[in-house]
Amino acid sequence: PGGRLDPCLIALHNSRSGHKHTQHHNRMWLLVVLGLVAGSLGANVDRVKRGTWHHDRCVCDQRGYTPWGRGLDAEAFSGRLDGHASRLEQLQQEYKGLLDKFETRWKDVQEKAHHLDVVDHWVSDLEGSGCEELHFQCGGDNKQCIRNILVCDGSADCDNANDEASHICRNLAPAGSVFEGHLNKDDDTCTKRKPETFRVIITHVDSNPWFKARPHIQATVLLTFHEDHEEQTDSLHATGYYDYATHSFTLNPPESDQLDFHCEFDNVPGHEDRCVGSIRHQVNHHTCVTFTLRKKD
Q1: 242-269: per-residue pLDDT in tens?
Q2: CA distance 264 to 71
Q3: How would you label 67-89 residue by residue, b for 16+ Cβ within 10 Å and e otherwise?
Q4: Is the backbone of residue 272 left (phi > 0), alpha (psi -120 to 50) or beta?
Q5: Is 193 inside a domain boundary?
């Protein structure tokens, strides 16, 4: 009114003018910066094209870092590697020493355990099983006895089922086994040949499904002896059976002299390769000679 401008309109106009001026000023500075950057890039590209660019114009501070590790040169790295190798070799030697000690002590433990088994077997033999002849002791606290022919027949007859245990029902004279023993002919009171070497070859083992307790055995017996100062060898075919209850096998008389052969294992772990053999009269089981046979490889 009255030709005067509104102070509010004047202030608004001045603020807009100032804002436009500021925006214009900022745009100018932006163009200047972009021009400088573009110029610098253009110069660098031109240098690359001319091959005059040098990488040492931008050098990073990599002090303390090398291909062999922080702060190491090749010589120092090699020294450290040798130190690790030496320590590793030392640890290997210590490990080998501990392993040798363990194996030695473990062997001692096994030998002592085996010795205890042998002593236990001897004590059992001296004390007796507490069962009648031709009977099997079931073991345990109740001292139960069953007939030998019931052992390993496929049906548990002992209260603790020990008569069907795997370590009991194991034939220690399977087919292919070869046992050999040497005799002192001066101790032989029965045989006509007085053999010096007695070899048994188990050729066949057959188990009757209706009578598993007594596997049938076929064997060849080789006798080496001297006659008229010359070494002789005779071969005899024999049949017999294996007895799980007594861990033994018996060969029936192969000749008319009625002499059979019986070999019994002591069932001590580690002694499966030997048995105590005896040549005896079949009728009364009178023993003519006793000797040890060992299993041949």
Answers
A1: 999 999 999 999 999 999 999 999 867 6
A2: 78
A3: eeeeebeeeeeeeeeeeeeeeee
A4: alpha
A5: yes
User: 17 in a domain, yes or no?
Assistant: yes
Asked if residue 123 is part of any domain, the answer here is no
Residue 232 sits in which domain range? 172-295
Q: Rounded CA gap, 239 and 180, in Å?
A: 17
User: In terms of C-beta density within 10 A (0-12 exposed, 13-18 middle, 19 or more buried), how is residue 195 classed?
Assistant: buried
Q: How far apart are CA 274 and CA 268, in angstroms?
A: 10
Number of domains in the chain: 2
How far, in Å, CA of 187 to CA of 192, rounded?
13
* 157/146 Cα distance (integer angstroms): 7
- What pTM did the predictor assign? 0.59
CATH label of the domain that carries residue 195: 2.40.128.620
Q: Partners of 264 in the beta sheet?
A: 248, 276
In this structure, are strands 145-147 and 69-70 parallel, antiparallel, or unpaired? unpaired
C-alpha angle 190/176/165, rounded to 5°?
95
In a domain, 235, yes or no: yes
Per residue in 278-289, pLDDT (tens digit) is 999 998 888 999
Q: How many whole angstroms separate alpha carbon 255 and alpha carbon 191?
A: 11
